[in-house]
Specification:
about 625 residues; alpha/beta; seven-stranded mixed β-sheet
């Protein structure tokens, strides 16, 4: 019970006591004087006014109590319906023509979603509110920050041109705007308006508007918290699924890389060493070699499902990658689907791997085309990319490290996604295209891991059935283009130095041995780390280079590397592995890193390059 209601009840009690007193006096006198009748008349009016105020207050308290109770009892999924019900009850009670709630977006520059109630005879278009430039009304924001509401009884009393235009367009006669804050940020604005007649707002009106604003804002805050909790749970589940799949994918990729080294190495040697091959035989070998290269690319994709794919990053202009991808989309998908790049060259740079970013956008473009074609292509369909600058602070809801990011929005006009499909969209092998293998594969799982694992960014999908789908990607920004100062590796790949090859896979060891011997090198081979250390100790002075695989039985490659350096600190070691280059930090004293699978020319060039290093 508030203070004002207590005061009204006290006034009513005093008025009744006075009324009884004067009636008693009049009874004793046997007649009523004009003065006493006047006092009784005024007292009666005062009594009635107080009684009316108290009745209004009781009705208002009952209304607020019923609204509060209903909103508290509703599950978060039904709060929207509860808000609409509350607007109807409050709008009728306060005798206003329109009551709506504006939710302010995270940039505090325009209004977001709208809850709208109006009396039946008025149909008001509120679309203009979604683009209302709140930041341009700095005086209004300042008023709100001082915890003041804004009220106007007549449109002519408004001095600000922007607000006056808004009021006029919406045919508003009188207006009250009540803000709801969280810290120093406006979250919601409650707007109470009359459309037919002007209204002189009294203190009771303004107090009631503040009270209903608090009740509805608290319900909206509870809804936001629940939505954020569900969202974070979804993100955690996705990350957990991807981490478990990544462990499996990393092991598969490592073994597959070893097989490809042997296959590609032997095919390459066959092409270079055998001069008596027929044209048909060479064509067959070349086709097999091309297939091996495609398998190597697939391995890289599988590898990005692990805790980190191979990712050499540089400063990339997003426009350049988007332009290349959209050229491919223009050639490969329906011409009726418009492709829009809403950025300019040299406008947004990110620190990323160009090939992986290309793959991300191409996958998104392909998915977008399928989403549009599944519904049926029509005029106005579009695939577009937009980029904005985004700054993350310590409380960033996406979990981004504080800093500057490029916010990439990839949008299509396809069939959209249900919430259930959206939650599964990043799962490997998930597809909505039943009865066909088209589109099945790593898809968005690849995109997710490239963005979050390889680039420490963030990705999310905004979509509803029958509406546009937008994939939001946040990648670390870079300010200037990278300068390419890398030295070209020498083309002469022959030599006669002594190389110790430590590799446990028989097929890989044999293929690499043949390759190095083909280029003229003397090769010592070891089947595991234990044998490798033994042979290195036996001929340490004669060995010019150690080609070391990391994953081996008996003694790991890491331990072998440390012990070799203990024996001869200046020895040249070339690490080869199917694991990520980013995991090679602990091997910084090595002279090079060669990721598997590799072509024999790449092996020859890298070996020659390391041997020629001072």
């Amino acid at each position: 019970m508030d203070k004002q209601r207590i005061v009204l009840e006290q006034q009513l009690l005093e008025s009744r006591q006075k009324e009884a007193y004067y009636k008693m006096l009049a009874g004793k006198a046997g007649k009523r004087s004009v003065r006493e009748i006047d006092k009784l008349s005024r007292l009666f009016i005062e009594h009635k006014q107080t009684e009316e105020k108290l009745t209004i207050r009781l009705n208002r308290d009952n209304l607020f109590s019923s609204i509060s109770t209903k909103l508290l009892e509703l599950p978060c999924s039904e709060i929207n319906d509860g808000i609409i019900w509350s607007l109807d009850k409050a709008g009728i009670f306060f005798e206003i023509d329109q009551f709506f709630i504006l939710q302010i977006n995270e940039h505090n520059d325009i209004f977001g979603d709208i809850y709208n109630w109006h009396i039946p005879e008025f149909l008001v278009n509120t679309d203009i509110l979604k683009d209302f430039p709140l930041n341009e009304c700095s005086w209004l924001l300042q008023k709100f920050r001082q915890n003041e509401l804004f009220s106007v009884s007549c449109v002519n009393d408004v001095d600000d041109d922007i607000l006056k235009e808004y009021i006029t367009i919406n045919h508003i006669s009188s207006l009250v705007i009540v803000p709801k804050f969280s810290g120093d940020k406006v979250l919601d604005l409650m707007i109470f308006a009359t459309l037919k007649n002007t209204r002189l707002w009294n203190e009771d009106d303004l107090t009631g508007f503040r009270m209903i604003t608090d009740i509805l804002a608290n319900a909206l805050a509870r809804q936001r918290i629940e939505i954020q909790r569900q969202y974070l749970e979804e993100q955690l589940q996705i990350r957990q699924r991807m981490d478990s799949l990544g462990t499996l994918a990393g092991g598969i990729a490592h073994d597959f890389n070893n097989l490809l080294v042997a296959i590609m190495g032997n095919l390459d040697l066959l092409l270079q060493r055998e001069s008596g091959l027929t044209d048909s035989q060479r064509d067959n070998i070349n086709e097999a070699y091309k297939a091996s290269q495609h398998a190597a690319q697939l391995t890289k994709e599988i590898q990005s499902l692990s805790s980190g794919g191979i990712s050499q990053k540089s400063v990339i202009d997003i426009y350049d990658v988007a332009h290349d991808v959209f050229k491919i989309l223009e050639r490969t998908i329906d011409k009726l689907i418009e492709k829009k790049i809403n950025i300019r060259p040299k406008q947004y740079y990110v620190h990323a791997n160009a090939d992986q970013l290309h793959q991300v956008l191409l996958n998104l473009g392909t998915n977008s085309a399928h989403a549009i074609m599944e519904r049926g292509v029509k005029k106005g369909d579009c695939i577009s990319i937009t980029v904005k600058k985004y700054s993350a602070d310590n409380n960033d809801k996406r979990g981004l490290t504080p800093g500057t990011y490029a916010h990439i929005s990839f949008t299509d006009t396809g069939i959209g996604m249900s919430n259930e499909i959206r939650q599964k969209a990043f799962d490997p092998m998930f597809t909505t295209r039943r009865g066909s293998r088209k589109g099945q594969g790593l898809g968005l799982a690849m995109v997710y891991n490239i963005v979050t694992k390889s680039h420490h960014g963030f990705i999310d999908i905004e979509s509803q059935p029958g509406q546009n789908t937008t994939v939001h990607i946040y990648l670390p920004s870079a300010q200037i283009p990278a300068q390419n100062n890398a030295q070209d590796i020498v083309e002469n790949i022959n030599g006669n130095e002594m190389i110790l090859l430590i590799e446990d896979e028989d097929s890989v060891r044999e293929a690499v041995t043949k390759t190095l011997q083909f280029y003229g090198y003397n090769v010592l081979s070891a089947v595991d780390g234990e044998e490798g250390l033994f042979k290195f100790k036996a001929k340490e002075d004669a060995i010019d280079l150690v080609l070391l695989d990391l994953t081996m039985p008996k003694i790991s490659g890491e331990i072998v590397f440390q012990r070799i350096l203990e024996i001869r600190p200046n020895v040249k070691v070339l690490i080869t592995s199917g694991h990520s280059a980013e995991k090679m930090i602990k091997f910084s004293r090595a002279k090079g890193f060669l990721p598997k699978p590799y072509q024999i020319k790449t092996l020859g060039k890298m070996v020659r390059h390391v041997l020629d290093k001072n």
